[in-house]
Specification:
The protein is built from 8 helices and 2 strands; from the N terminus they run αααααααββα. With about 150 residues, the protein is mainly alpha-helical.
Length: about 150
């Protein structure tokens, strides 16, 4: 069975794309179940999953765009990896958080402050370190970190 999958890279890429979109859906459902307010870093990780998933699905659908669309997927995974790693560090060491995340992540997009958008999504603050539920012994950002690492391997 594994040999059949290796011979069909488009199927594997489509599977990665579906996993990325399922991760966003799962995070949204868990946020609603635990009544969590989504912090800037969590939104950034969701957007990173969506970017990576879009890149994987584009590559699976149009192999002629492979070079461009795989770079999009890799960019999404690397941005998400950095954000999830930083948030996992902040959850373990909340005293290292600098203030709060500032305005909401989408506010920065509305005023076209892309530096603020990246800073809020990748640096975070105390809001991103608190109120993280434990799910099977890991916090939600740690699960995101594992998913990003697994897809990069």
């Amino acid at each position: 069975m594994l040999n059949d999958l290796v011979r069909r890279p488009r199927l594997i890429l489509a599977g990665f794309g579906i996993v990325c979109f399922a991760a966003v859906l799962g995070a949204e459902l868990l946020g609603r179940i635990f009544a969590l307010e989504v912090c800037a870093m969590c939104w950034f990780q969701r957007l990173s999953f969506l970017l990576a998933g879009s890149g994987f699905l584009l590559t699976a659908a149009w192999p002629s765009l492979r070079l461009f669309s795989l770079r999009i997927a890799e960019l999404g995974l690397l941005l998400g990896l950095e954000s999830a790693g930083r948030q996992s560090y902040l959850v373990a060491h909340p005293e290292m958080a600098d203030g709060n995340c500032g305005a909401g992540l989408f506010y920065y997009l509305q005023i076209q402050d892309y530096e603020g958008f990246l800073r809020a999504g990748m640096q975070g603050g105390i809001d991103c370190a608190e109120n993280q539920p434990l799910i099977l012994g890991l916090h939600l950002p740690q699960w995101s970190l594992l998913a990003f690492i697994a897809m990069l391997m």
